Amino acid sequence: MKNEKKESIKRRFKLLKPYLNEKVKRVWAAIEAKEYGYGGKTAVSSVTELSRNTIRRGMEDIQQDEIMEAKSQIRRPGGGRKKAVVKYPEIEKKLFEILEPEIRGEPDSALLWTCKSLRKLSADLKTKGYNISHRVIGEILKSNGFSLQGNRKTYEGKGHPDRNEQFNFIHNKVKLFQQNNDPVISVDTKKKELIGNYKNNGQEWHSKSNPEKVNVYDFPSQAEGKAIPYGVYDIGENKGWVNVGMNHDTAMFAVNSIRMWWYEMGQITYQNASKLLITADGGGSNGSRVRLWKTEIQKLANELKIDISVSHFPPGTSKWNKIEHRLFSYISKNWRGKPLVSYEVIINLIAATKTDTGLIVKSNLDRREYPKGIKISEKELSEVNILREEFHGEWNYTIGCC
Predict the structure, then answer these.
(1) Which of 169, 205, 209, 353 could bridge to 334 as Cys pair (CB 3.0-4.6 Å)?
(2) 3-class DSSP assignment, residue 225
(3) pLDDT higher at 9 or 284
């Protein structure tokens, strides 16, 4: 008779098990044990493989009438395995240390993405002593503004085979400078803007059916001028300087913008600095092949009496430059939908740019003339006190002060 009861309990448990949550399972086992009679807990435990303590807890639930009062919570408060972010409070910091060399970002978007898979990130963290599943890493990344992205046809030209190695080289050099409390800046020229009552991309709130009225055509010949914003972004301090030029984007203009940043912001923060690191694109006014850029950097190094190191991003990778998605993208958001009708409007809109992470931006209108077509001879170039790195010396070099 006892064996028949046990077999009956076993059959019922097998049928019900897929539909039982943790609490209902132990309450059901407690009811079966009571119905069984003497030795019920032992009998039910043997056929269901539930522990006697679990069945006993089910009986306590019945006695306290928790079946009728139970809500959605199955475990008692605080029960169960702790979440990874609770167990390892520093896990986000460690994850971003791994991601830093690989992080990418669109210039006009705060959204970030990464070229490492979740499983690779999980494996990297395990080597550092953090047993975190790839699913948890995905949740952390999503909560911090990352997303999974597909390919988009935006790149023209052939990628350099040492592209990733150059990224890692720049990353390690930036970390070394920051450890020594020496300034690291990211520089670039933002898209040139026409001055006038022209349409500016984006939207802003207006009363219904009352949009800002602008010119139908954006003819440069009818513009009141053009604005050339050259930005300097302090990576460590999250501060930006934007020098708005009025005529030509030349290497002389680029270096003078860096000079103005130093006197307005840099020297206040880095009073004991002995060197400066500049990360820049490989082309444009601050290009790796521009002779005027190097001679002007030499003049700046002599003036400031510090050595200036420069690391250029490989061809076709300008979007990886920090200034693009940490400064320029927020400026574009701040002036979206606003016609840039004057230089004063541009300067004020740039200076009003702020973020929740504490970005501070200062701006200046540069009325100087920067002539185009300045030629630098071999003799002038040979006078530059340049020390090239063994790894791609055309991209990575230091110009020492004389």
Answers:
(1) 353
(2) strand
(3) 284
Alpha helices in 102-232 (DSSP H): 118-127, 134-143, 163-179
Which helix (H) or strand (E) segment holds residue 398: the answer is strand 396-399
Distance CA 188, CA 319 (A): 11
What sign does the dihedral 136-137-140-141 (CA atoms) show? negative
Determine the Cα–Cα distance for residues 276 and 313; give it in Å rounded to an integer: 17
* Domain layout of the chain by residue ranges: 2-69, 84-143, 163-204+214-399
End-to-end CA distance of the chain: 102
Cβ(361)–Cβ(240) under 8 Å?
Answer: yes
Strand 307-312 versus strand 396-399 pairing type: antiparallel
The residue among 180, 181, 177 whose CA lies nearest residue 169 is 177
- The confidence score (pLDDT) of residue 209 equals 47
Per the CB < 8 A criterion, the answer to whether 239 and 265 are in contact is yes
Residue 208 has pLDDT above 50, yes or no: no
pLDDT: which is higher, 204 or 25: 25
Q: Render pLDDT for 294-318 as a digit per residue (tens, 0 to 9).
A: 999 999 999 999 999 999 999 888 7
pLDDT at 291 over 80: yes
User: Which of these, 31, 9, 2, lies nearest to 17 by C-alpha position?
Assistant: 9
Q: Please state whether 186 falls in left (phi above 0), alpha (psi between -120 and 50) or beta.
A: beta
Report helix, strand or coil for 263.
helix
Strand, helix or coil for residue 178: helix
Tell me if residue 312 falls in helix, strand or coil: strand
Residue type for position 400: G
SS3 content of the chain, % helix, strand, coil (to 5): 45, 15, 40
CA distance 373 to 74: 75
CA distance 113 to 115: 7
How remote is the C-alpha of 310 from its chain's centroid?
A: 22
Say whether 53 sits in a helix, a strand or coil.
helix
Q: What is the spatial distance between Cα 185 and Cα 292, in angstroms, rounded to a whole number? A: 20
Write phi, then psi, for 46 (nearest 5 degrees): -70, -30
